[in-house]
Amino acid sequence: MARTDKSAAIAELKELFESSSAVLVTEYRGLTVEQMKTLRRSMGQDAVYTVAKNTLARIAAKNAGVEGLDDALTGPTALAFVTGDIASAAKAMKNFAKDHPALIMKAGVLEGNILGAEDVKKLADLESREVLLAKAAGVLKASLFQAAYVINAPASKLVRTVDALRAKQEEAVA
Question: SS3 breakdown of the chain: % helix, strand, coil, rounded to 5?
């Protein structure tokens, strides 16, 4: 690889490191090109999955301010740069790895924090952003319903009391 090509590759990787909310480091040894294409498609538009030379990836990560990935950048390495929902990308990788055990999760970076392989697998077990937002909306709706009930309770009690007094007065008159 010529020096200018290396510089261009480092600049591209640095840009990906800086623009991504998360980076997943994997080992792809034993996967075919067709399987890699399938993995890329399964991750969707929110992730870029690319094979990178370890030395160039180390330099780009260092230039982007990402420290601690040196141990994971050994052997055949591919990086998933996630700009969207990390749980979806991690889940796609986990599901792909079930069918293709050659894909090995090595590490990850989430908002500047280094994650181990187990941490990345835990991220894959999270529900998607949409599901979590729906659950949060359900909790808020239930809280609002309870608040409305508490606010309406005195007025409702007053109406029942007045109605009971009216009925008692009607009985007394009759």
Answer: 60, 15, 20
Torsion angle, alpha carbons of 52, 53, 54, 58, to 10: -70
User: In the predicted model, what is the mean pLDDT of the chain?
Assistant: 84
Give the HSE-up count for residue 73: Cα atoms under 13 Å, Cβ half-sphere.
22
Digit-coded pLDDT (tens) for 105-147: 888 888 878 888 788 777 777 776 777 788 888 888 877 778 7
Q: Do residues 119 and 38 lie in contact, with contact meaning Cβ atoms separated by under 8 Å?
A: no
Residue 78 neighbours by CB under 8 Å, 6+ apart: 25, 26, 27, 28, 36, 49, 50, 51, 52
